[in-house]
Amino acid sequence: MPIGGVTLQSVTEYYRYCPEQVEVKISDAVCIGRRRSNFSMCRGCQFNDDEKKGSSARGAAGGHRPTVDPAMIEQLFKAYDVRAVYPDPLDETGAWRIGYSAAQYLLRSLGAMDRANEKRTRIVVGRDMRKSSPALVSALTDGIRSAAASVIDIGMIDTPQLYFGVNQVGAIGGIQTTASHNPAQYNGFKICGPRGVPIGANTGLGDICRIAQKVSKHKSDRQGSLAELNLTAEYKKFIRGFLEPVEPMKIVIDSSNGMAGKWAPTIFDDVPNLSIVHLNVETTGEFVHDPNPLVDANLDQLRAEVTRTGADFGVCFDGDADRCMLVDERAEIVRCDKLTALLAKWFLQRQPGATIVYDLRSSRVVADEIKAAGGVPRRERVGHGARRKLF
Length: 391
Known about the structure:
By secondary structure, the chain is of the alpha/beta class. Helix content is 34%, strand content 19%. It folds into four domains: 1-61, no CATH class; 68-228, Alpha-D-Glucose-1,6-Bisphosphate, subunit A, domain 3 (Alpha-D-Glucose-1,6-Bisphosphate, Chain A, domain 3, 3-Layer(aba) Sandwich); 243-334, Alpha-D-Glucose-1,6-Bisphosphate, subunit A, domain 3 (Alpha-D-Glucose-1,6-Bisphosphate, Chain A, domain 3); 337-380, Alpha-D-Glucose-1,6-Bisphosphate, Chain A, domain 3 (3-Layer(aba) Sandwich), CATH 3.40.120. It contains 14 helices and 17 strands. The strands form five sheets. A six-stranded mixed sheet has the order 5-9-8-6-7-10, sandwiched between helices. It has a five-stranded mixed sheet with strand order 12-11-13-14-15, sandwiched between helices. Strand 11, helix 11 (260-268) and strand 12 (274-279) form a beta-alpha-beta unit. The radius of gyration is 24 Å and the shape is globular. 40% of the residues are buried.
C-alpha cells in the first residue's frame, strides 16, 4: 500500500519485491486493514477487489477514480482550514475525500477497543448558510462514515457552536462546512479535534491533506452511523451564562447575512434591558456586503445605523460568526488591539495574574494595559500556528 512514498504490497510469504526497490515484511491482515482504512487503489494487491473486476469496471463499481490528482487536493488546504471556490476546484468528490481523511486522522487518537465502540468514534458536523453547503456537507458526511466513524449532524450553525457541540457530546472532533468571511462563491471546512481544539497546517491539517491525496472515493464495507442533534437550548444556556445584568442598552447587530442572522436573535433577543436592532439577518447565501468585518467599507451600514438610532454600540459579524468588529456610540471603529486591552482588564479582575495571549500585530498599548492590570502579556501568531500537534 502506498504510504509516504513506500509501496507496501500484501504478501502471504515473508518478503516480496516492491516497485520502489523496497522489501517489506507485512501480513495479509495488516494489508487488508490498511486497504480498507486508507488506501483503496493499491495496484497489484490481492485485496484490491476493484482491480480484479477489471479497469473498465473500476469507475462504475465502487465509485473509484483511476487516479488522484495530488495537486488539486493540495490547493484546497490553507494554513488553518480548507477553502476554495465551489465547484472548481472544491467539489463534492473533494469534500468526500476530506471527510474520509479527517476521520482517519481523528480516529488515530483511539485504541482498538475504542474504535469498536460507536459512541467513541463520533464526529460532529455542521454547516453555514452558503448555497453550496448542503451538497458539500452531505458528501463530507459520506466520507466520514466510509471511514467507519459516526456522524452527529447539528445542522445550520455558527462555527463556535461546533466547538461547543464537540465538547457537549464528547466527540473526537468536528468539521464545520463554511468559508467564513470569504465571498459567496467560496466554501470550505474548519476542522477541530478532541475538546474542540482547532487543527491547522502544523497541527494535523497537513496529515489530513496527505491522506486525501492518496485516497479515492470508494464504497466501504463498514459504514459509520448518522444522527441529527439540535443543541439550540443547550447552546443558548451556555452563551447566556457569560452575561451579567446590564443597564438598559441599545445595540445594533449587523449579521452580514451570515450565521449571526440566525443565532444572534435566538440567543439575545429576550435578554432583559437589551434592545437590539438587527441588520442583514437573511440567511439565503447572498450578501448585501461581503461578510468580512475587517474591511472598513463593510462597516458603513452598521455605522450609519448606530448614528441614526443613537445606539450605545454596534457589532458586525463575519459569515460564520466566529469573528466580529465593534463600533462605539460615535460610530467610530474600535480596533482589535484596543478591544483586547479593554477585555483583558475584565478577565484579569476575575483571574488575577493570568496570562493574556494577544495578536502579534497589536500595538504596545495591549501589553502595557495587561501589565497595568496585573496580568502577563504573551504575543502569538494569529490562528492555530502556536498550537501543539494533537496526535
